[in-house]
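Q&A log
Question type: sequence-to-structure
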Amino acid sequence: MSCAAGDRDSSKASPLREAFPSQEKHSTVMLAAGDDPATMHEKILVADDEAGIRRLLRGYLEKAGFRVTEARNGKESLERYRAEKPDLLILDLMMPEMDGLDVFRAVRQESPVPIIMLSARVEETDRLVGLELGADDYVVKPFSPREVVARVRAVLRRSTQADRPVRALLQLGPIRLDMAKRTVTVDGEAKALTTAQFDILAALMLEPGRVFTRLQLLERIQGSAFEGYERTIDVHIKNIRRALGDSSLKPRLIGTVRGVGYRLLER
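Response status: OK
Response body:
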C-alpha cells in the first residue's frame, strides 16, 4: 500500500467497513473467562496506514482495558515501539515508508515481544511467511474487532503464564526447558523461541512420546482453534526444529506421525 505522509482519506470505502457487520454478527470466537478488563493495563501498538482501522481497534481494545498507541506507517511503527516498549504489536503487513515485514524483522532482532500480523492478503503462503518469521498470530482483513481482541488476550496469556505447568524445569536428553524463566537450552546453549513455539515445545515435553494432533497443539497455544488453521503448527514445528538443530528427515527430538501430528521422541 502506498500513501502520502498523512492518513488515508477516511471517506474511502474500506473492506473492513463493508464486511464488518456480518463478520461481527457471526464471529464464533469468545472472550476468555476470567479476563477482567479492570485489571488489564497492557499497552498495545496498533500500526496500520488506515486511520479507520486504527480507530476501530483502539476503541475495542480500550473498552477491553488495554492502553493503545498508534502508528500510521512502518517507520513510525519502529520509532513508537522503541520509545514506548508496548506489550504487544498489531502490525499491518503492507505500510508506506517501511514494509511491515521489515519492521517485524527489526523488532525481532531486539525483542521477543508478541506480534500479531494484520493483512488484506488472504493467500495461505502469505500467512505462512509471517509465521515462518515468528509471528504469534496472523489476522486477515476484513476481520471482527472482537475476534482481534480475543486473539490479543490469547497471545498475552501465552506470553505471561509462565507458571501454568506444574513442573518448573523440564529436561529430556539435551533439551532443558525452564518454565519460570521461559528459556530453552540444548546441550547448555541458549535457543531463542517465540511464545507460541515455547508453549508447543512445553506441551510436547510434558508428555514425551504422546502423539499430539495439530488441532490439539493449536488449542494449546491459542486457547481455541481460530479458523481451524492447523497448518500454523507445521510452520511452528519447522521453526522449533531449526532452533533446536533438529531435522524432519532424521529427527532426534521431534518426530512426525504422518496424517496425525507430532510427538517428542523418548530417549
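Response note: Residues 1-39, 162-166, 224-228 have pLDDT under 50 and may be disordered.
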